[in-house]
Structure formats: C-alpha cells, structure tokens
Design a protein that fits this description.
alpha+beta; GroEL; Chaperone_TCP-1; elongated; seven-stranded mixed beta sheet; unfolded protein binding; 18 helices; three-stranded antiparallel beta sheet; Chap_CCT_theta
Length: about 575
C-alpha cells in the first residue's frame, strides 16, 4: 500500500522511488548551482597572484597544507556539491594538461556564473546566455592570437627559459622566482631529448632535505636515493650498475618442501650448499663487471659476499625510484638474482654516499649535462615551506612541457585579460539580438583577474582597472597591474594636482600600472587557451542544468559519533 500511495503522489515524485529529491526551475536548480560555484571560486580568488593569501587546509587524514596553490586546495577540499565538483574536475583537467592556470579556471568560471545570475534575474533565458558566452569565447581565442608578444625559438637557452618560467613561479613563491626558475630551467634543459616534443616531466625529480635555506639548493644530473649505502663501500667511480627489483638474498623456493636432516653434518652441508649458491651468483655478477648493485632489500649473507667482491650495495625500497635509477643509468631491471647480460648493465660516472645537512643519501651523478634524469635537491628550514616550493617547481616543470608544444607567450600581469575584455566588449556592442548582453558579461568577467591582482596587492581596484582601460584604448596593449605600486612613490609630469613648482608632480597615490613586456612578465598562450576553454565549458554546463534529481542514499542509518553516544549515556 505504501508503494501504491507513492504512485498516487502528484508530479515527478510519484514516478520516482520514495526518498528521491527533485529540484527544478530557476530558483531551485540553476541559481542554487551558481551559488555553490561562486562560493568555491571565492575561496581561490583571494589566493591569486604573487600577493595572494595562504589557505590552511586540514584533509581527512589530519595533514596540514598551507599554500596558495589552487590545484592543491581543490585536491584536498572534500567538495560534495555536484555543480562545484564539475569546477574541481575542470581544474584537475587543467592541472594535468598544463600544470598551471587552475586558479584561472576556478575564478573565471565562478565569475561567468555570477554574471549569468544577473542576466537570469533580468529575464534572459540560460540558452541565450550560453550562446552569448560561446560567441565571446570564440572571439577571445581570435584576439589571443593577435596578442602574442614573444616566443622561445630555442628551448635550450637557459636565460630565455628562466624568463618564461618566472611568472608561473612568482604567483606562488613571490621573491624567489629567479632562484627557482634557474633551478627548473637547468634541470629541464639537461633532460630535454633531441625530439623536444617527447619531454617527460617524470624525468625531473625533487628530493627534499630539511636544513639550510633555499639558496643552497642544487641540481644533480642524475638521481638521488634518500638512504645511506647498505655496506661499507661508499663510493664508486665509472660504475657499472645492476638493478634488481627482487630482494637480493638467498632464493626461497616457490613451493613448500620438507627436508629431513638426520645429523649436524647434514645440516652444515645443507647450509653450505645455499651459501655456495649465493656466492657463485655474486661472483658471476662481479665477473660481468658490475660494481654497484641496487635492490629493495639485502640479506646479511648477500651483503657479506658483495663486500668480499668489492661491490657497492644500494638499498632502494621505492619502485618509482628504481625506475628512475634505471632510466638515469640506462640499465634494465632484473627480476631474479643472477648475472646480468651486457644490455642490462647501466653506467654511471659516479655513485657516492653524501651527507647533506645531517641527511645521508646516495647520489647517482652523471657528469655529462645531457643526462636522462635530473634531481633538484631542495633545501629548507620547514616541511611546509619545502612542500610549497615543490608545488611551484612541479607547476614550472609542466609549463616547460607546454613550451615544447607551443612556445608563444602573451603579456602577463592582467594585461591580456584587460585587452580581451576591451575587444570582446566592443564586439558585443556590434552584435545584434539578446546575445550581446551575454557577450558583454563575458568581457566583464575577464576583469576579475586584474581586479583581483590589484585587490590582493592592496591597490584601489576600480581606479587601477579604469586606468588600464584608458591606456589600452590608446594602443598600449601590454600594460598590466604593478603589484609593487603600493610601496612606490612616483613622479608623473603629465598627471596630478600636487606640484613642486617646477612642473614635476609627486604622486603619492600609485598608478598601479606597468608595461608587462618591458618587465618580462609573460603568460603561456597554450595555458591561457586551455584555461579559457575549460572555464567556459564548465560555466555553460552548469547553466544547462535545469533539474536536480537526487536518489536516496543506500545503506542503513549513519553511525553516531562518540559525543552523541556519550550524550545518550548521560
């Protein structure tokens, strides 16, 4: 009877299973989704730019993250709202594709939806807004091609690569961008293959060492194992390396068996046979020319024979690190303890145990600069600081990967967004129909980036943005936000009301404007295109949703917390 009563309910509720929630219409579905996305964007917005504020995130395991990196914030936040989740997935796609611009995707998508909310309240249908946004997006891609300011024809030019990476790093580690860019550029160029399109970000590794400060960080052409050598041999030059993915010890039989031993002589003979077998294997390995053996685990007896035959033992428990060592040395991983053939043996110029800030590690160093793997030894005083620098390095390495596909750049510091907004707004004025309102709102949404940069730098955003529009209208399309303007006192001959009697005017209120091109502030064109695409797609997808249908969650009642149990007991 309960199910029959459910059938008799009016509307969609009578068709669906009892407990299902159904929301429809502009107020219940569209605007609620927009509000959730706006709230998510507001979290990231204050963290944008070099002066962005840190967010402290405690994940479900209790680990603390203090960072401005939007990708990390999105990853650690447990977002459950379906519409907001789509924004998170778009940001993750941007992170996988370009490594940078995740904040751009979140903030721009949130601003597009906020502007769409105004249009909906004014009476426009979501379909009309979507059409206008699509036209604005297509116009943005056309304008972007005309804003290309520079490119890097030679990716092995360290100075040019450093300039290209500075802007990406400065947005996360302002003041350290030159140092970090130099480390990343050196590491990336050293592993860049002859076919530049085959650059692999996994060939760049970061090894974190507590102690010291960031300027002590170095680049190792090779790889590093964060453990000391297993035996007494600590250094080998011109080493031949054999890598075993199995434990280096007496081999255990695959099946269980029983050995009947009647006296002590038979026991001694049995043990001796196993020892002789292992010693023969180590001897064969030594005769093949191997001087360094890498394995996840070494037995005591195996270490004894390795020492006897002057072979260095390096313990490496991580399979990822084993693959990196194999790639760095040109070796092949072996799954059985036996003498390797010539093709499986790798070569390394130097394998040495080093101590850095009381941390012992084994360094596989190649002397030639064109090594297959590079490791950035990162120094710092706290784990949070090193982790945040590592995230900036990961983003910069991914930006370098993007350069191998498209080496063109557009002006940074918000200059590109203002010029896009200006030209798209002009395009909207000339467009017929109701689409023009959505096109102009698309242009207005792009103002969020220079406005946010100015706000986070402590500037008067409205004044700075209006000045930017005026300068861009005069043809200076590379002009952007000067985030250091609040600490400067400028002299402006052509503007102002404060004069010293000689015609020069001392302006204490900063203009907040600079030429991004002359200051070498650039953004990757490919990253900008990808971010615009993903943000527009997620905004239009959210606007297309007019009904939300939520099935009843499976399972029984949720377990009570301990506090609730204690209250019940009381």
């Amino acid at each position: 009877m309960a199910s029959l009563a459910n059938f008799l309910r009016p509307g969609v509720g009578g068709m669906l299973k009892e407990g299902t929630k159904h929301l429809s219409g502009v107020e219940e579905a569209v605007l609620k989704n927009i509000e959730a996305c706006k709230d998510l964007a507001s979290i990231v917005r204050t963290s944008m730019g070099p002066n962005g504020m840190n967010k402290m995130v405690l994940n479900h395991t209790g680990k603390v993250f203090v960072t401005t990196d939007a990708a990390t914030i999105m990853k650690e936040l447990d977002v459950i709202h379906p519409a907001a989740k789509m924004m998170v997935m778009a940001a993750q796609s941007q992170e996988r594709e370009c490594g940078d611009g995740t904040g751009f995707v979140i903030v721009f998508a949130g601003e597009l939806l906020e502007q769409a909310q105004e249009l909906i309240r004014q009476g426009l249908h979501p379909s009309e807004i979507i059409q206008g946004y699509q036209k604005g997006y297509e116009k943005a891609l056309q304008v972007l091609e005309t804003l290309v300011t520079t490119s890097i024809p030679n990716l092995r030019d360290k100075k040019a690569v450093c300039e290209a990476l500075r802007s990406c790093i400065a947005s996360k580690q302002y003041g350290l961008e030159d140092l970090i860019a130099s480390l990343v550029a050196e590491a990336c160029i050293s592993v860049l293959p002859s076919d530049e399109r085959h650059f692999n970000v996994d060939n760049i590794r970061v090894s974190k060492v507590l102690g010291g400060s960031l300027p002590f960080s170095t680049v190792v052409h090779g790889t590093v194992v964060s453990q000391e050598a297993a035996g007494s041999i600590k250094s080998v030059q011109n080493a031949k390396v054999a890598i075993y993915s199995c434990d280096f010890d007496i081999e255990n039989p695959e099946t269980k068996g029983t050995v009947l031993i009647k006296n002590a002589t038979e026991l001694q003979t049995y043990n001796r046979s196993e020892e002789d077998s292992l010693e023969k294997k180590v001897k064969d390995i030594a005769e093949s020319g191997v001087t360094v053996v890498v394995s996840p685990k070494f037995g005591d007896l195996a270490l004894h024979f390795l020492e006897r035959y002057k072979i260095m033992a390096v313990k490496c428990s991580s399979k990822v690190d084993l693959r990196r060592i194999a790639r760095s040395c040109g070796a092949a991983g072996l799954t059985k303890v036996e003498a390797p053939d010539t093709e499986s043996i790798g070569f390394c110029d130097s394998v040495m145990e080093e101590e850095i800030s009381s941390t012992k590690m084994v360094v596989f160093r190649q002397k030639n600069e064109n090594s297959r793997v590079a490791t950035i030894l990162l120094r710092g005083g706290t784990e949070n600081m090193i982790d945040d620098v590592e995230r900036a390095i990961d983003d910069a390495v991914n930006v370098f990967k993007v350069l191998t596909r498209d080496n063109r750049f557009v002006p940074g510091a918000g200059a590109t967004e203002i010029e896009l907004a200006r030209q798209i707004s002009s395009f909207g004025d000339k467009s017929p129909g109701l689409d023009q309102y959505a096109i102009k709102k698309y242009a207005e949404s792009l103002e969020v980036f220079p406005r946010t940069l100015a706000e986070n730098a402590g500037l008067k955003a409205t004044d700075v943005v209006s000045r930017l529009y005026a300068v861009h209208t005069s043809g200076q399309c590379t002009t952007g936000i000067d985030i250091e303007a609040s600490s400067k006192v400028r002299e402006d001959i052509t503007d102002g009301s404060l004069s010293n009697g000689t015609g020069a005017v001392h302006e204490t209120l900063p203009t907040g404007i600079l030429d991004a091109k002359s200051c070498d502030i650039y953004d990757s064109l490919a990253t900008k295109k990808s971010a615009l695409t993903l943000a527009t797609q997620v905004a239009t997808t959210v606007l297309k949703i007019d009904q939300i249908i939520m099935a009843k969650q499976a399972g029984g009642p949720k377990p009570q917390s301990r506090d609730a149990d204690a209250d019940d007991a009381a």
